[in-house]
Design a protein that fits this description.
Blueprint lengths: L3 H4 L23 H21 L1 H4 L18 H7 L3 H6 L1 H13 L4 H13 L4 H16 L11 H9 L10 H21 L1 H7 L32
Helix pairs in contact: 7-8, 7-10
């Protein structure tokens, strides 16, 4: 049989030098799907973080020191806390119990601001005032501050203007406003709370369940309002 290459010279049946391979195309995830997956992972991580007790028990500016545990409070001492808001805050155990209560309402920034102002007023020299004032203003008062407290426009404006040359009275108006809001809003609820009622009866307070943040109140909400003893 004759060689086919001789019969049909136009045919080139020589083997190719480089063997071609078929590569399966890599399917790339669509950008919007990838973005949704990333956002979902972030939400899951944030949800787990919020469920950890230490997320709400971390160090805070103006946080009280090593305060006595509320479980060691006698019923007689707890009764005194119901006499006045000032009496509650003047005792370390009372301040600690009230702070824990505000954390269940996600409004602990109010008491932290009040404590920070108390510490600020105790500064021994003018040299200490400027850095402390800057920290308090950036943490609690300026717009979009991480722990911004609810202040009316006039109080916030007066406080902002005094930041040019802060003195011991720089946060006096703001502190008084926050104190009044706590006294007329949070304090009555604290006196009706299960942990406080348990202390009155000599029981160790159970860990209070976390609640949704209550709506923010302003000074106008309390104009002309008087505390109702019947609610206590």
């Amino acid at each position: 049989m004759e060689n086919p290459l001789l019969l049909f010279p136009q045919l080139n049946i020589s083997a190719p030098k480089d063997k071609a391979y078929y590569k399966k195309p890599v399917m790339k995830e669509e950008p919007h799907k990838a973005g949704k997956a990333g956002a979902k992972q972030k939400r899951n991580r944030l949800s787990l973080l919020l469920q950890k007790p230490e997320f709400h028990e971390g160090d805070h500016l103006g946080k009280p020191g090593n305060l006595p545990k509320a479980a060691s409070v006698s019923p007689e001492e707890a009764v005194k806390w119901g006499e006045s808001f000032d009496k509650l805050l003047s005792e370390k155990a009372g301040l600690d119990a009230f702070t824990k209560f505000l954390k269940t309402e996600f409004s602990e920034e109010n008491i932290e601001f009040w404590i920070a102002c108390e510490d600020y007023k105790k500064s021994k020299s003018a040299h200490e005032l400027l850095p402390k004032a800057k920290t308090i203003f950036e943490t609690f008062i300026q717009k979009d501050a991480p722990k911004e407290v609810n202040l009316d426009f006039h109080t916030k404006e007066v406080t902002s203007q005094s930041m040019g040359q802060p003195g011991r009275s720089t946060f006096e108006a703001a502190q008084s406003t926050v104190y009044r809001l706590m006294e007329q809003d949070s304090y009555p609820r604290f006196l009706r709370s299960a942990p406080y009622l348990g202390m009155l009866q000599g029981r160790a307070p159970a860990r209070a369940p976390l609640r949704r943040r209550s709506r923010s109140f302003t000074v106008s909400d309390f104009k002309g309002a008087r505390p109702n003893p019947a609610l206590w």
